[in-house]
């Protein structure tokens, strides 16, 4: 059975004082069985997370990674650097990176390759815009994004990765896809993976990311093809993040 993963993406938020308070609140809570917690922080705070979370049940990671191993790439962060700070995960291909920095599907796959080479687990983001959904092109967009990843990473690389469906129209808007819409896309993604390998489809975790919060987490986490969440704004508040994690734990108990 696939365990649930709740990953908090802080985006460009945080401070040393606020980060420590967040971690202390997290550590005060009982350990949740069958749910892995991860926090994805701005690069300047990785050392702090390594210090505060080392030895805990919550792992940490980066929000992006370079598609290059090393070199004259000002502002880039290499996968080896993330690994040196104890990261387990890194986000790859987030919609904000695709939109603001023009990252292509091929570049996203190259970043994932760099992550995998350093034994990091890439959280591979994909999703459609509101315009594409309303035009009935969701499957077309998903097929291309996922197809590039499958072609370049292969079954082995994908098996060491996590997928995250994040509809662009439901990120930071307060608007969430309905449970039926989420399940439909997640089931479709799993079916596409099954065409490559039934084992891959059975084992790969597919997270939902799009205005996930405690008020909708229970319903989302109980969907059969949702294996957790990539949480944005709600992850900045420790108690809200923990409430989402508890919803995931409860959903896991129901399926055991």
Order of helices and strands: EHEHEHEHHEHHEHHEHEH
The major pleated sheet works out as: 8 strands, parallel
Rg (C-alpha, Å)? 17 Å
pLDDT averaged over residues: 95
In total, the number of domains comes to 1
User: Which CATH architecture would you pick?
Assistant: Alpha-Beta Barrel
Overview of the molecule:
With 256 residues, the chain is of the alpha/beta class. The protein has one domain (4-255): Aldolase class I (TIM Barrel, Alpha-Beta Barrel). It is 48% helix and 15% strand. It has helices spanning 16-27, 46-53, 79-84, 95-101, 105-117, 130-134, 138-159, 179-196, 198-203, 214-221, 238-255; strands at residues 4-9, 35-40, 58-62, 89-92, 121-126, 162-165, 206-208, 228-231. The protein has an 8-stranded parallel beta sheet. Helix 2 links the parallel strand 2 and strand 3 (58-62). It is globular, with a radius of gyration of 17 Å.
Q: Summary?
A:
With 256 residues, the chain is of the alpha/beta class.
What's the structural blueprint in terms of helices and strands?
Layout lengths: L3 E6 L6 H12 L7 E6 L5 H8 L4 E5 L16 H6 L4 E4 L2 H7 L3 H13 L3 E6 L3 H5 L3 H22 L2 E4 L13 H18 L1 H6 L2 E3 L5 H8 L6 E4 L6 H18 L1
Parallel strand pairs: 1-2, 1-8, 2-3, 3-4, 4-5, 5-6, 6-7
Helix pairs in contact: 1-2, 5-7, 7-8, 10-11
